[in-house]
Amino acid sequence: MNKYELALVISSNVEEDVKLATLDKAKALIERFGGVITNVDDAGKKRLAYEIQKMKEGFYYFVKFDAEPTAPAEIESRIRIQDNVLRYLIVSDTQEA
């Protein structure tokens, strides 16, 4: 199992329950593909570097997890089509190793 980190930016113009449901869907995807979530960091609402879909702010979340090497591609392919997700990125988290 490798260590990964998912950076997730959720639209700032959604209700609190929709925001949490979107985060829960992303966490469920990680677990569905055999991942084990080790930490979820809520970085809060931040200004985007540039406008995305006419929005200037978004909610940032960083989810650390352990998974097999094939899992990130599967997770990204499903997060890509989720509503309210502005940007996402899964990177290998080698700084803890």
Descriptive key words:
alpha+beta, 97 residues, Alpha-Beta Plaits, 27% helix, 2 helices
Task: Please provide a written account of the structure.
The chain contains two helices and four strands, in the order E-H-E-E-H-E. By secondary structure, the chain is α+β, with helices and mostly antiparallel strands. The chain has a single domain (2-86), classed as Ribosomal protein S6/Translation elongation factor EF1B (Alpha-Beta Plaits), CATH 3.30.70.60. It has a four-stranded antiparallel sheet, with helices on one face. A hairpin with a 2-residue loop joins strand 2 and strand 3. The model has no long low-confidence stretch (mean pLDDT 92).
Order of helices and strands: EHEEHE
- Main-sheet strand order equals 2-3-1-4
Return the domain count: 1
Largest sheet: 4 strands, antiparallel
Q: State the secondary-structure class.
A: alpha+beta
Distance between the termini: 12 Å
| Rounded radius of gyration (Å) | 13 Å
| Shape summary | globular
Beta content comes to: over 45%
The residue-averaged pLDDT reads 92
Q: What's the CATH superfamily, by name?
A: Ribosomal protein S6/Translation elongation factor EF1B
Number of helices: 2
The CATH topology is Alpha-Beta Plaits
**Uncertain residue segments:** none
The count of strands amounts to 4
If classified by CATH, what would the architecture be? Answer: 2-Layer Sandwich
Using the coordinates above, name the CATH class.
Alpha Beta
Helix content: 25-40%
